[in-house]
Amino acid sequence: GVPDVSENIRVVSIVDRFLEHSRIFSFERPGDRRILIGSADLMPRNLYTRVELLAPVQNETLQRELTDVLDRAFADDTDAWQLDAEGHWRRLRPAQPPGRNLQRELMGLHAERLARFAAVARFSLVPKDRVFFDLFAEAGQNTLRSAKLLRDMFERWPEDRGLARDLLKAEQEGDRITHDIIQRLNTTFVTPLDREDIYGLATQMDDIVDYIEEAADFMGLYQIEAPMDQALELTEVLVKACEQLFGLLQNLGGFRDLEHYWIEIHRLENDGDRVYRDAVAALFADRIDPMVVIRWRDIFLRLERAIDSTETAANLLEGIVIKNA
Predict the structure, then answer these.
(1) What is the CB neighbour count within 10 angstroms for residue 62?
(2) Deepest of 59, 114, 240, 254, by most Cβ within 10 A of its Cβ?
(3) What DSSP state is assigned to residue 21?
């Protein structure tokens, strides 16, 4: 600067790839600092022939960022020119290459910021609404409860017919959960899972409970005197499959380490198919009343369809996990 005039003023011009017209003004004295931003060049053509506005920056975070920009500008020693006391511009040279470069440093900072934002955005695009996962876990729990009630009913039949009423309530609870899922699906703009997956899984879980309730209902309607051994085996397979399905739904939100659930459900479904074939064969092995054959075939078919539905639900969940892992 000029002695006794501008010794505290340092004028630096940076000539590089980008030409910026925005301006940062920083005024400081002990205990007081003010930063303003604007677009005005401190030149007569701008200050005398038009009105220029400067806006104070009051946010402390923005003040620190703008101060950092100014510090980097005055540290530039590769593309910076400094005005000396005689009015001549002198290009600065780095004491140790490669030196400091304002625009490269700012581009690097913004690239890092963009990378952080992109990482956050990837997670933010997935809704944090956990209600769908909670509802599916609730549906899985209700399905398991229904399967256990059916098993208990078959084991105690015909002494304890009150379990049929409990199963009817479980079926109604399943309808309520399915209704809640569909209603939320229709009122949610962005869902954590594909819409067709949510709808398909909800209806499949509802089908399992419906088949269970139908099997229980047929026991009373057909006036079954005592359950066949194969029916007890099928209900046991059904309970085990529902246990695996409930565990899968409980842990669905993590989308990880879930393979063992659907693998076990597939194995159980194969066991169910074998027991079902044995059950149907047993109906025709002896001279059984044709009406009894028809009645038990209907019951076996509902049990087999309930087990098949657990596998269908597991297949849907496997696809969901693969798409979201």
Answers:
(1) 12
(2) 240
(3) -
User: What type of residue is 144?
Assistant: L
Residue given tokens 């369809």 in the structure block: 305
Long-range contacts of the stretch 253-257 (C-beta < 8 A, 24+)? 253/130, 253/133, 255/320, 255/321, 255/324, 255/325, 256/321, 256/325
Report in angstroms the alpha-carbon separations of 176 from 18, 163, 243, 268. 62, 20, 21, 28
Residues 23 and 38 sit within 8 Å (Cβ to Cβ): yes
Is 218 in contact with 299 (CB distance < 8 Å)? yes
Which residues have CB under 8 Å from 112's CB, separation 6+? Answer: none
pTM for the full predicted model:
0.62
Q: Given CA atoms 158, 164, 165, 167 in this order, what sign does their dihedral have? A: positive
DSSP state, 190? S
User: Among 100, 79, 104, which residue's Cα sits nearest to residue 89?
Assistant: 79
Token output for 308: 């098949």
Per-residue pLDDT, 118: 64
Phi, psi of 289 (to 5 degrees): -55, 125
169/164 Cα distance (integer angstroms)? 9
Q: Give the pLDDT of residue 285.
A: 82
CA–CA dist 262, 317 (Å, integer)? 8
Query: What pLDDT digit, counting tens, does each position of 98-134 carry?
Result: 899 888 888 888 888 888 766 655 554 455 568 999 9
Cis omega (within 30 of 0) for bond into 158: yes
| Beta-sheet pairing, 54-56 with 32-38 | antiparallel
Angle in degrees, CA 217, 199, 298, rounded to 5: 25
> What pLDDT, in 10s, does the model give residues 250-261?
999 889 999 999
